[in-house]
Amino acid sequence: MKPFDYARAGSTAEAVRDFGPGTMYLGGGTNLVDLMRLGVAEPERLVDVSRLPLDTIEPVGDRVRIGATVRNTDLAAHPLIRSRYPMLARAVLTGASGQVRNVATVAGNLLQRTRCTYFQDVTRPCNKRRPGSGCPAIAGDHANLAILGTSDACVATHPSDMAVALAALDAQVHVTGPGGDRIIPMPGLHRLPGEEPERDTVLSPGDLITSIELPPAPPGASLYRKVRERASFAFALASIAAVLDVRDGSVAGCRLALGGVAHAPWRAERAERALIGGPATGEAFLQAAEAELEQARPLPRNAFKVPLARNLIVATLEELAP
Amino acid sequence: MNRTEGRVKVTGLATYAAEYPVENVAYAYVVQAQIAKGRVKRVDATSALELPGVLAVLSCEAAPRLAEDADPELALFQSREVAYRGQIVAAVVAETHEIAREAAAHVRVDYDADDHDVSLSSDHPGLYQPEVVNPNFPSDTEKGDVEAGLTAAAAAVDVTYETPVLHNNPMEPHAALALWDTEGRLLVYDTAQGTTGSRALIAGTLGLPEDQVRVVSRHVGGGFGSKGTTRPQAILAALAARMVGRPVKIALTRQQMFDVTGYRTPTIQRLRIGVDAEGRLTALEHVAYEQSSTLVEFAEQTTVPARVMYGAPALRTGHRLVRLDVATPSWMRAPGECPGMYALESAMDELAYAAGLDPVELRVRNDPETEPDSGLPFSSRNLVGCLREGAHRFGWEHRDPEPGVRREGEWLVGTGVASSTYPARRSPCKAVATMQNGGDVLVQVAAADIGTGARTVLRKIAAGTLGLDPERVHVELGDSDLPEAPVAGGSMGTASWGSAVVRACEELLRDGKEGRADTTDEVKADSELARHAFGAQFAEVRVSAVTGEVRVSRLLGVFAAGHIMDAKLARSQFLGGMTMGMGMALMEETLTDEEFGGFLHRDLAQYHVPACADAQHVEAYWLDEQDGELNPMGSKGIGEIGIVGTAAAIGNAVFHATGHRFRDLPITPAKVLTARF
């Protein structure tokens, strides 16, 4: 790999101050180091933020704050998360393997990059890696790529499971950076590809995620379900984070986010709107799913994701309905 | 028996090819072709050579000479022609692996690219009939009148099955460490399934006498066939070491392994089988279409098991090959038998449904007296015993044959069966057994332990012959300076090495000090018989009607493989084979890049093999088979039979669960959902 400088930041302020052109932050490194080996990421300088004192999970009033460097394993095992946000714990546990989760960090998880074949191979074109070079996935290997929110420039998916659950929970991402501190609501951190697929998120250079804050869990029952061709250690063909609150047979509240189908965790707002206030029946769930998936732009080899996402929405809501 | 090397393996002390501590070692890293076909116009290594720590760049512009008749896959840098994307066109040698890797990115290769053709089809104009298929079977065979048999059949199937490109992916990557001593002798620590053959190939490729080369492979982290032939890393390490005058080490990355270590050819297989009203086959035709490279003809023996399995008055088998702009396919666990039996055993299942027969019963009724193609008697054949025992253990008698009717919530449940077969061969081998001071015995043979427990089983064989406690027997292997031994491949390692070890130990008993054996004459004198292991595999699957996910809830195999030498080692081998077969059925697939050539799935995040969570209920049993026509141990090989038939058993169970027949592997959620059964 390309030689690089390495520094370990002592504080978030120091990390931001040390950030310059060619710099990248290093968290658990479970994705970035791979990409450096492959020549996909070529930072001149790594600022290691994995040892910053951001590794606690604590209640803040009726909310919960998760530090950016909390390890995925610790997040999934934490009593506050398990008791208040079991869906998040489950989503994290469906991701990667125990070994990877022991090292991977919460902020790094959100900022991991697509596993699209072409993106990971520097000998092939990719608009995300080299803007303007083309997207061979559209005519080639796209079986596991996006059906929603795609552009002619990119059909990559965001690989995180955690992010899907966080999107359904309306998490808030706390960021510090050269322009000061700010809060980005989830969903909204990740972008759709549009004409600039090289930009995964709305973060600016030097922005550093410091924590994730979870509002009180919405009322109702919740579930995270992930579909994959083997039983563990695989990215989602599609996944769903769902919260359903049914009162007197009708839907009082609903949160739906899909994974593995878009460049970002996909909050299924059309389906949510179709459901809220209506009856909690299989027919209503199906109509809501179809309303959401009307916007799908599948390609020949990922067209199965349309019925997959539809089935997943309906089956998950039926499981959650009392 | 516990593995002799268990402790050094789990404590990390076992030394693999790239791990030998050598002073002053340099590191090599390869540069691979970025076109699928054409010529290297120019290699510009200037900026790579300017990087601090870079020692040399090898390419067709600075090529050491190799033997003119070198295997084209090993003839590194001898030609400007590019035969496939990913072919090694240059290599950098540097002080560290990291520098070599970075410098490789600075080597600029310009090409004259030609149009490429990387797609196998059954109507490709380049298809031809190879003279022989691996290792030396005739390509085509025919007896009886197939067309008449099909016409006369009460029920028949005419079906085409497809299997994708598959890759071995052993845990230890392909790696080598080469050193030239002051007398000009070459030592290569190579990850190889055999050192004797590897020494011959390396010496031949470099144009050296064999006694000038030594190959050491003490521990090998799996191979499955990909390390059965010498791969380019060994040649590259040797060339580079000579060029820079220092030991050179190379370990391929997982991505590079997909390009240069061989793969299982994709297949398209057409089967036509007829059956009469009594359930006896009237005709069987099996034709396979497969690919090789423009460099080397490798024709996989896909339809050869159809010559062994079932009795039919008319039997036609054949292979058609096309040479494409792709890497050369090679051995992968049970080449031929594994994909061939997937298609045959799936078609037999279809035939059972077409004829209204139980799939176990159809197989039993067509168990032949003698080997169908050759007419040779079997040394032993207990397929029926395996089917009956497996059916009993699995609870097959409770099976409702109706497909697509059992449902537990969203999960459709089904069961399936398939047969397994693999040849029981042995090859000539030498061994030495020496009495040590203190009464212990040292057994030496150039066998390779690729993770199967070869050391352990050879120790047990020697101890048994000598009447000694195994603790008093020591086995030395994995070194070409030891008595010559055949490759750990074709499920013939234990039979071949074990025969020589038994003979050497018998000689030691007579001599008191030393026993030497060479089984060449003994193997030659083996009577002509059909020698095969058989098995039956039963699968229960659950298919989600919501997501298309297929999970194997039970997999049970019963095998008849002669005398089982060691229950613990054998069970691991069977379970490993069956689990690999599960991967073949449901997830393993390397995509060919039609646009750029080469392969697209090039790591283990994309090329899925079963995880522990997928293999929760895999059981292996065996019949105690007595067969005196095999070798002194009465054993048949078990390295490969476990994977043969597994994919068919699972595919047949998926049909039984869903009522839909999937005829191309792997059976993924995408295919299941698209079928809308």
Side by side, the strands of the main sheet of chain B go 3-5-1-14-11-12-13
Strand order across the biggest sheet of chain A? 4-5-8-6-7
Mean pLDDT over all positions of chain A: 97
Tally the helices of chain B.
16
GO molecular function, one term (chain A): FAD binding
EC number (chain A): 1.17.1.4
Organism (chain A): Nonomuraea rubra
InterPro entries (chain A): CO_DH_flav_C, CO_DH_flav_C_dom_sf, Diverse_Substr_Oxidored, FAD-bd_PCMH, FAD-bd_PCMH-like_sf, FAD-bd_PCMH_sub1, FAD-bd_PCMH_sub2, Mopterin_DH_FAD-bd
Q: Can I get a quick summary?
A:
By secondary structure, chain A is α+β, with helices and mostly antiparallel strands. Chain A has 11 helices and 12 strands. A 5-stranded antiparallel beta sheet of chain A has the order 4-5-8-6-7. Chain A has a 4-stranded antiparallel beta sheet with strand order 9-10-11-12, with helices on both faces. In chain A, strands 1-3-2 form a 3-stranded parallel beta sheet, with no helix packed on it.
Task: Describe what you observe in this structure.
Chain B: It holds the Pfam family Ald_Xan_dh_C. The complex is a heterodimer of chains A (322) and B (677). Helix content of chain A is 28%, strand content 21%. By secondary structure, chain A is α+β, with helices and mostly antiparallel strands. Among the domains of chain A are: 1-48, Uridine Diphospho-n-acetylenolpyruvylglucosamine Reductase, domain 2 (2-Layer Sandwich), CATH 3.30.43; 221-320, CO dehydrogenase flavoprotein, C-terminal domain (Enolase-like, domain 1, 2-Layer Sandwich). The radius of gyration of chain A is 19 Å and the shape is globular. The relative contact order of chain A is 0.13. The model of chain A has no long low-confidence stretch (mean pLDDT 97). With 677 residues, chain B is of the alpha+beta class. In chain B, helix 14 (567-586) crosses helix 15. The longest helix of chain B has 20 residues, at 567-586. Chain B is globular. The A-B interface holds A 1-3, 37-39, 115, 117, 120-121, 123-124, 136, 139-141, 143, 227-235, 237-238, 301-304, 307-308, 311-312, 314-315 and B 32, 34, 98, 101-102, 105, 253, 255, 410, 546-551, 586-587, 591, 593-596, 600-603, 605-606, 608, 610-614, 666, 668-671, 673-674, 676.
